[in-house]
Design brief:
Chain lengths: 96, 141
């Protein structure tokens, strides 16, 4: 099975947000499928998800060149464990 | 959902951007696609749980907008395709992953098999998922 080989999701995501030098929070990152499509352009990307097993896959699949600017945390959106006004961009990734 | 949006508002900087990216129910099309084009085999049936999830998401965003937490800046619909090599692979995926949300009716499956069997050798099956991307800006006034 193949998802979005046309790359429409990545195309529109980048049309809707300028990730350069931004701090990004991805809500519901799962296994990081979407994360890899923009994280390289960001200053810092934090993906969080309540599914610990999905996060383990995301950690394992993190490309070497993204280790410095991508973090994954196990959390729920009812309490986001960051101080106020920390991020420039938040992404609801198939999660609302 | 509404509480989560309030949390997102809290951690965003003033004029920060919220991107809401998600599929929306619309009886997604099942197509047989090859190098010579594509043919419509039919559509999936949106099941009540999926429709209710959509309505809850839209309702949550309307509430956030009404509270002046976010202002909608722009929105776009686009197609997101799932591809399978065979009709059976598609059916198996749907039974595993979309059970309770989307229903593939037998007549659509049979039509898919017929179209695929007579299509070009490079034919694959795909579902055209309707996606919605919305850019919201944190209200800072």
């Amino acid at each position: 099975m193949q998802k979005d080989p046309e790359g429409n999701e990545k195309k529109y995501l980048h049309q809707f947000a300028d990730f350069s030098n931004k701090r990004v929070l991805e809500v519901g990152c799962g296994e990081g499928r979407l994360t890899w499509k923009y994280a390289g352009a960001s200053k810092l990307t934090v993906g969080f998800d309540p599914d610990y097993n999905a996060l383990r896959i995301a950690q394992a699949d993190t490309p070497h060149d993204l280790h410095k600017n991508v973090q994954f945390i196990n959390a729920n959106a009812t309490y986001i464990p960051f101080s106020k006004e920390t991020f420039d961009i938040a992404i609801l990734a198939w999660s609302l | 959902m509404v509480h989560a949006l309030d949390e997102i508002r809290r951690i965003l900087k003033p004029k920060g951007v919220l991107i809401d990216l998600r599929p929306v129910e619309s009886n997604w099309a099942v197509e047989v696609s090859s190098s010579s084009g594509y043919q419509l085999a039919g559509t999936l049936i949106d099941l009540p749980i999926a429709v209710a999830d959509d309505e809850a998401a839209f309702s949550a965003m309307r509430t956030a907008e009404a509270h002046n937490w976010f202002v909608k800046k722009k929105e776009k619909e686009f197609a997101f395709f799932y591809y399978w090599d065979t009709p059976s692979e598609m059916k198996e995926f749907m039974e595993d992953e979309w059970y309770g949300f989307e229903k593939l009716e037998e007549d659509v499956f049979q039509k898919t098999k017929s179209l695929w069997a007579t299509a070009n050798a490079d034919a694959r099956i795909r579902v055209r998922v309707k996606m919605l991307i919305t850019q919201w800006e944190k209200w800072w006034g």
